[in-house]
Amino acid sequence: MNTKNIASLVGMLSRAGFDQSIGHRLLQQVCFKPVSFTLTEKIRKGKDCLTCHLSFQRKTDEYVCEFYDASFIKEIHLPDRTINGIRLPDLDRAMGEISWQVPPSEVAFRLDDEKTWERERNIEVVVNDLSRLSASVDGKNFADCLKVKYWSEVGLESIVGNLNAVRSRLEVSQRFYFMDGEGIAVDQAYLFLQNRWMEKRLLALKRQDDPKKGADSHSGEGENKKLLQKKRRKRITVSKL
Length: 241
What we know:
alpha+beta, globular
């Protein structure tokens, strides 16, 4: 095992703001000698969470980390509103009280004893409320936010489906590179992604305020395309003459 290489990688990642404990996880991967692997680090920034996927490649007897992909979802704040009979703070609280990722229970399942399936009963109530909330466009946006908040990355994909499409509307991400042992620090990445998130949010609000603008833009593109096609046909006709 190339311990100098491991020490160099841990030093580079530490300078970028990653915890030194990543060294042990790095060793666990390297000892199997994979061609490539990824380590995921979740870093709390206040109430926000920055998720970093560090990519490692083997080159001869050394490993290199050329970049990491950082993604950021701003903490989801729900207003004190009632939509379709569902009060948003109450639903948020109910979902927060459920252990979504739970190991197999040691309690024997008995249908006549509700305590053995109390969690599942609470989940059913929440799922019904999410369905009622999603009956309107405004409510669906909040329902999607809650699904991403509580269901992402807890192993429920086989039951609730893939949430990537919903997550992409709320998430911003960027790839940050290392060069000559130095790279963009995690704090800088966080500030950059915060700015990206604010920009994305402002653009979304502008589209809501002026939906015709987007439609007019697409209409204009269509007209321009038709004019170009018409000019091409004229040129072809002239050349034949």
